[in-house]
Amino acid sequence: MVIPQMPLVIAVAKSQVGVREGYSEGGWNNLTRYAAEVPGLSWADGQSWCATFTSWVAMRAGVANLFPRTADCSTGVAWFQAASRWSWYPAVGSQIFYGDGGSEHTGICYAFDSVYIWSIEANTSVNGSTEGDGVYLRKRKRSDSIVYGYGLPQYAEGIITADPSLKGLAGYAYTTSHTGPGPATLRQGAWMVDNLVTGSLAIDGPVYAGRLCIQQNDASTVAFEVTAASSTAPSIARFKDVNGNIGFEVTAAGNPISKLTHFTTGALQLGSTTADLGGGAGAIVSIKDAATVPTANPTGGSLLYSEAGVLKLRTSTGIVVDLSTVPRNEWRPTDHGLTAWTFDPACCSTTGTTLNTGYIYFVEIVLRNAATISSLCVNLGAGGSGLTSGQCLAGLYTTSGTRVAVTNDQSTAWGTAGDKTMALMSSYSAAAGKYYVGLLVNGPTSPTFACGSTMGNFTPGNAHLTPGNYRFCRSASGQTALPASYTMTSATPDATNVWAAVA
Predict the structure, then answer these.
(1) pLDDT digits 0-9 by tens, 191-245
(2) How many CB atoms lie within 10 A of CB 195?
(3) Residues 6+ apart with CB under 8 A from 326
(4) Whole-angstrom Cα distance, residue 35 to residue 485?
(5) SS3 letters for 411-446?
(6) 479 vs 336, 362, 485, 500, CA distance in Å?
(7) Which of 56, 32, 272, 242 minimizes the C-alpha distance to 156?
(8) Of 390, 349, 368, residue with least CA distance to 499
(9) Running DSSP on this structure, what letter comes out for residue 491?
(10) Closest C-alpha among 473, 417, 487 to residue 445
(11) Tell me, what's the pLDDT at 189?
């Protein structure tokens, strides 16, 4: 993307309108700040300063290489002519030269038509003299004998000119008149540092300065402050890449929005303006306790926060994970090539358990992350016998009792011992949350399923759980198929802690 340069040149020049040279002993003395601020021209202070001013404007606008740096108008004419950037016709943003051979005076053209030129000129006056007291906006006739010619800076976006000989050439846009780049102001800063004006820039249109350096006045003054025009303003600050895409902005409400990757070589402190790194240093993330613990579920994401000094995670399904209790050195389902399970199979009892026929045994799993489930798994210590075809099944249910997937008949597979991976008739795309694996056996002798330990008729696996929320439970008797839905609040807690998994 080409960054326009001409509007900024005109904005910088216009910002100085009203500046006057020094006054002493009853007269104007040609002393200004401009010569001292243009490297190499400090010697020119006290002399005619129209060309020095133009050099200063180019430097402040970040286009010093597009204008001659000189205090002498004749040198400026020769510079443009040697670069083949000379014309006898006006152009927006061009440097106008006046007088004999262009040696007497200079300024910057900001608009023109078939009769007049409008300019910003230094060392002139209200009557347009070539030796005046300040910076003024001027309007002159193009045909005035004082007008000599125009130097055409090679702006990145090209130049708008009235020269018919340049019509159609690359880098030139021909027109018989032009009103200039539109409203633009560059408010002068209260003070300056080195070669940078520390003022505020307000330009209508895509105009950019090279850089801005600010030195704070004192320890009690804010160095840089921006206030939004209103609560409906699109933003109060924006940073764009070379293609004009917004990477970072600050909204009118003061909220920073970043669309890029953030890099930090130091610590990150959340919830406080005082770093609390526990004596550490470097790449540390510190999170203060949440002022109010989240109670609503986020949409399409998770919430990470601290409560009473404990790091916690709340998922979009409402599961709250205490991250301080997450096992670090224990086997997990993924270590076995599984997605989730009822519990670590190493905790199974030495004997296993058979299932009463005609009951659906529901065993709960927790899916920590969304996953596609294509099979269910159990482990049999001994196969069953005489199992009824079509009435030995496994299925996947939501906690509300809706069946979301089911296997084909398992009467043959369950007739032998071993690890059983039972393919679902259709894979199921499961969101994170809790699910039940449902198991139904019918026939004279049930297989022996791997299970956890029990305590008589009571199962520790249902400790502190209420109806509809049991981890291990069963349906009423007489079931010959897995129903499309089941009322889980009617399920009976069961001591048969069958091990099951999903993959």
Answers:
(1) 333 333 433 443 333 334 445 556 666 777 787 778 887 888 888 888 888 777 8
(2) 13
(3) none
(4) 88
(5) CCHHHCCEEEEEEEEEEEEECCEEEEEEEECCCCEC
(6) 32, 13, 13, 20
(7) 242
(8) 349
(9) P
(10) 417
(11) 35
